[in-house]
Specification:
Helix content: 40-55%
Largest sheet: none
Shape: elongated
Radius of gyration: 34 Å
Organism: Micrococcus terreus
Strand content: under 5%
Protein name: DUF308 domain-containing protein
Number of strands: 0
Number of helices: 4
Structural class: mainly alpha
Order of helices and strands: HHHH
Keywords: Membrane, Transmembrane, Transmembrane helix
Length: 148
């Protein structure tokens, strides 16, 4: 004697699924058709396919900004404060030179490796020391941010 497993039978599941789907109304795919086509000629005769509408949190079309905003040209790469630019070159350049030297110059003296490591550390320290010491609260307004 086999026991019947708990839960609905597959026929009951199919029937419930059909009821749920029937409650959705007529189904429209992204092209605006009902999804039922008799042959390819009926769909081709309908004309161009409309663009699909996106569904989600924004159920409206965003208007394009017609303003004539032209962003200003960014400043030159080396036009910053010299100490910061030199520190950035040291932090980026020393590992690059070490990598290239390890590939191209196997017999590089250990003193040169030490100098490049010291240049990297000095550049990192220079960047760290140029960080602002306190926050500039003039531009933040009356709000200090979210509080829990």
């Amino acid at each position: 004697m086999s026991e019947r497993p708990e839960g609905p039978t597959p026929e009951e599941v199919d029937r419930q699924f059909e009821q749920i789907v029937a409650g959705f109304g007529p189904w429209q795919d992204a092209r605006g058709s009902s999804g039922i086509t008799l042959d390819d000629s009926t769909e081709a005769a309908a004309g161009p396919v409309p663009t699909p509408r996106s569904w989600g949190p924004r159920d409206y079309a965003v208007e394009e900004d017609t303003g004539d905003f032209v962003p200003p040209d960014p400043p030159a790469l080396g036009s910053g404060r010299p100490a910061v630019v030199l520190s950035m070159v040291a932090v980026a350049g020393a590992p690059a030179v070490l990598l290239l030297a390890s590939v191209l110059w196997r017999g590089m003296p250990a003193v040169m490796v030490g100098v490049l490591i010291a240049v990297f550390v000095a550049g990192a320290a220079g960047l760290f020391l140029t960080l602002p010491r306190e926050r500039d609260r003039r531009d933040q307004g009356p709000d200090d941010g979210a509080r829990v």
